Amino acid sequence: MPKPPAPTSPFWKLQRQLARFNTFLFRKTGGKVGGSFFGGAPVLLLNHVGRKSGQSRTSPLIYVDDSPRLVVIASKGGVDAHPAWFHNLMAMATTEVELPGGERRQVRPRVAEGAERARLWERAVAIYKPYAAYATYTEREIPVVVLESADATPAE
Question: Which of 5, 61, 136, 152 is the most buried (most CB within 10 A)?
């Protein structure tokens, strides 16, 4: 199976530049531009803080609207490592996401498991088919992250 490029490769540097450009367009247009990914998959902006740097970061991510919750997939981190944004997010009690149209929500992350994960994974793959292909060449189970309202009582 082919392995994804190393996070320091020119490919990943280009990915980071494109993510910054997408974030700029998203914010400038209220999500009219940059609010969807290839094939029309909807995008939100996840605001988080780097665990090591302490710097604010924003990651444009494909999401599933599982109203009132939002769902994101921690895909492209590496063959055996989750992406940095996933680790940053899980280290935070709450954070903010920006949705197309300018809506901002305070959310609390948790990782879906079991039947819930399977159901949400299928919905995510239906929205963005490359998730399924990526899952075949990574050595890790790709986390499905549920973003619940920070005002709601956490699920047990």
Answer: 61
pLDDT tens-digit readout, 70-124: 999 998 877 788 998 999 999 999 999 999 888 999 999 999 999 999 999 999 9
Cβ atoms 145, 86 nearer than 8 A: yes
The CA-to-CA distance between both ends of the chain, in Å, stands at: 37
Condensed to tens digits (0 to 9), the pLDDT of residues 30-43 reads 777 777 776 788 98
In the numeric block, the tokens 């994804």 are attached to: 4
Q: Which residue segments constitute the domains of the chain, with CATH numbers given?
A: 10-149 (2.30.110.10)
Per the CB < 8 A criterion, the answer to whether 42 and 100 are in contact is yes
| Assessment of whether the complete model's pTM goes beyond 0.90 | no
CB 83 within 8 A of CB 74: yes
Is the sign of the CA dihedral 146, 129, 26, 61 positive or negative?
positive
